[in-house]
Design goal:
Layout lengths: L2 H32 L10 E5 L5 H10 L6 H10 L9 E5 L5 H10 L4 E5 L6 H8 L7 H8 L2 H6 L15 E5 L4 H15 L2 H10 L3 H14 L6 H13 L7 H8 L9 H4 L23 H8 L8 E4 L7 E4 L2 H17 L4
Antiparallel strand pairs: 1-2, 3-4, 5-6
Helix pairs in contact: 5-6, 10-11, 10-14, 11-14
């Protein structure tokens, strides 16, 4: 073999070796980009994509929350798969130790996860909007404008004063990017499920609509925190309603005044003009004082049958009550309670 042939053979071998190294490097880079673990999160993390999230904001989230180790490799694969032009809103759950392809497949398909929506102890429409909005891809205004829209509320069978009654307090699974209208439809569906034929029959027997049951339950729950007293208090107010006696419920006065921290109701408070002041106006107020619990509504539907017409907080300030059938008996209970307030200098 002459020298020229040997040289050509060496060049060919070197070229082949170089190409194999290049191909191997490309293959390794490709493998690393697609299949190698690139997210160093040790537990499940959630990425929220709303209408204002662009690809740059998303990649920043992936670095901050999911600990993406090689963001450039994610970006390259995302562009190769045309993902930046196909971003879908939602809340996405990233399992620990995933690769780029797994994450991009999830994001591209829109495989987002539901959130658990829970609400209770809500007094006003503003409170409800402020409670729900941070949990969803919604603003407070998105919700409040609907809660205050009399035409929209009427389409669901409510008023702006009673629309809170449609929101049965519980835990619901909804998608983070649910629209406000679909949220209302979902809550109406849950309301319909809650008001089963059995509950509706009980409400009709009492002479109350479902919304009125919720209004009364809100008063009952404001009156007592003692579970065993709930059906007793409910029965007392139902007795007054049926006899057309003003409810004279102190919580409605607090609502009318706008101060639930009042420890003592004074005569000046009883004169406040408001449709919620049941010392002035006969019957139930136009809306609930709060979103009542399921327990509270069931306490109204399954109220205790008795002849009590009056109640007064016990003088031991335990939060429980003395119940009375006559005004004279009630007066004696009230004097003991006021004396204790005076002794403790509670004004």
């Amino acid at each position: 073999m002459n020298k020229n042939k040997l040289t050509k053979r060496k060049i060919a071998l070197i070229a082949a070796l170089f190409l194999s190294l290049v191909a191997g490097g490309i293959g390794f880079a490709g493998y690393q980009t697609i299949y190698e673990i690139n997210f160093d999160n040790t537990e499940r993390v959630y990425i929220d994509i709303d209408d204002e999230t662009d690809f740059e904001k998303l990649t920043q989230q992936l670095q901050d929350s999911a600990h993406c180790m090689r963001i450039n490799s994610f970006i390259r694969l995302a562009h190769f798969l045309d993902y930046p032009e196909a971003i879908k809103t939602g809340r996405y759950a990233l399992a620990p130790q995933q690769n780029n392809l797994q994450v991009l497949r999830m994001l591209r398909s829109g495989s987002h996860v539901p959130v658990k929506l829970t609400f209770n102890n809500i007094r006003t429409n503003q409170d409800l909007a402020e409670r729900l909005a941070p949990e969803l891809m919604l603003s407070v205004d998105d919700l409040l404008v609907r809660l205050e829209d009399s035409v929209l509320c009427a389409s669901y069978g409510f008023t702006p004063e009673t629309i809170k009654c449609m929101f049965i307090p519980n835990t619901y699974e909804v998608y983070w990017n649910i629209s406000p209208d679909n949220l209302f439809k979902r809550m109406k569906k849950e309301h319909t499920v809650f008001w089963s034929p059995n509950r509706l029959r009980k409400a009709e027997k009492i002479g109350l609509t479902p919304a009125e049951v919720a209004v009364l339950a809100s008063i009952v729950e404001e009156e007592t925190a003692a579970a065993e007293e709930l059906p007793i208090v409910a029965g007392l107010y139902i007795n007054r309603l049926h006899r057309k006696i003003p409810l004279q419920a102190d919580p409605t006065v607090k609502f009318a005044v706008g101060d639930f921290t009042l420890q003592r109701i004074l005569f000046e408070h009883l004169k406040v003009e408001s449709p919620y002041n049941t010392y002035i106006h006969l019957g139930l107020p136009p809306g609930p004082l709060r979103i009542p619990s399921i327990r509270g509504m069931d306490a109204v539907l399954n109220y205790t049958h008795h002849k009590y017409l009056y109640m007064c907080a016990k003088e031991d300030l335990s939060g429980r009550h003395n119940f009375a059938r006559t005004l004279g008996e009630h007066g004696r209970n009230a004097r003991r309670y006021r004396a204790e307030l005076n002794r403790r200098k509670i004004r």
